[in-house]
Amino acid sequence: MMNKILHGDAVEILKQFDKNTVDMTITSPPYDNIRRYQGNVKEGVEYEGGFSFPFFDIARELYRVTKKGGVVVWVVGDQVKQGGETGSSFKQALGFIEVGFKLYDTMIYQKNSASFPETGRYSQSFEYMFVLSKGKPKTVNLLRDKPNRWAGAQNFGKTSQKDVDGNITQGGSFTVSDFGTRTNIWYVVNGYGYNTKDVYAHQHPAIFPESMVEDHILSWSNEGDVILDPMCGSGTTLKMAKINNRKYIGIDIVKDYIELSKRRIEDSIDYTEDNKNPKLEYLVSREEMLEKRKKK
């Protein structure tokens, strides 16, 4: 099952998995009717937008197959319908909490442009990236690649920190580093030619930006971990898992998308010891950050 793309209904296939087998899931559901996908027909009925989407069934199965300390990154937005947003994103985040996940972080995928310019309201230019964990995340490697404006400068005075009782503890001086840790809002250049260099991948109507997926994989998993995308679409998650030396499992109900994913994986070039991912030098583990804080 490892390093395979499985054809069929995500819920039914996930039921065949042993529990506690997946380290990380990153996916985006076919939410609302923002995009038109190739539809599936079940018992002669084609569902609105082409897909039947049993959210709670999928959420429960993801909880069951996720290892303790594993993470699900759920990328979702809302459609404006009948004058208001659907609220699907919030409902799904709360649904994940209901089935047992912790909402570890509510992150924002900030696009460089508005996909659907609005009149009468501010144009929508972001999606949520809910980071959900089964207990405490076992892996946290934060990207410290945000350039600091005052890099190399000394701080003024001394640092101080106030505890819950109002007592102030003073620290020492420090030099501003070249780079700081990112915030939970990620600015991602998206769109044709930017999401991926695989031009043929745009046969799928809603592909992930490769950089966004890769950054999550680096942040919440380690080499050799199992990465799942139960609605893998054009295969971006699977490609980014493979080139970064993770195992992958993909599921999709549309055969054409599976073939598209396979092609992207076959065309990909893995990182090696001699050709390392340049982003690795910017990763700082949770343990490293805690150790630095103790020294201060």
Q: Topology of this protein?
A:
Blueprint: E1 4-7, H1 10-14, E2 22-27, E3 41-42, E4 45-46, H2 55-65, E5 66-76, E6 80-81, E7 84-85, H3 88-99, E8 102-111, E9 126-133, E10 141-143, E11 146-147, E12 160-162, E13 168-170, E14 179-180, E15 185-188, H4 210-220, E16 226-229, H5 236-243, E17 247-252, H6 255-267, E18 283-285, H7 286-295
Parallel strand pairs: 1-17, 2-5, 2-16, 8-15, 16-17
Antiparallel strand pairs: 3-4, 5-9, 6-7, 8-9, 10-18, 11-14, 12-13
Helix pairs in contact: 2-3, 4-5
Figure out the total of helices. 7
- Strand fraction equals 25-35%
Structural class: alpha/beta
Q: Whole-Å distance between the termini?
A: 47 Å
Strand order of the largest sheet: 1-17-16-2-5-9-8-15
Low-confidence stretches: 34-51
Provide a short characterization of the protein structure.
The chain is 24% helix and 26% strand.
Please provide a written account of the structure:
Helices cover 24% and strands 26% of the residues. By secondary structure, it is of the alpha/beta class. A hairpin with a 2-residue loop joins strand 6 and strand 7. Helix 2 crosses helix 3 and helix 4 crosses helix 5.
List keywords for this structure.
alpha/beta; 18 strands; 8-stranded mixed beta sheet; 7 helices; two-stranded antiparallel sheet; 296 residues
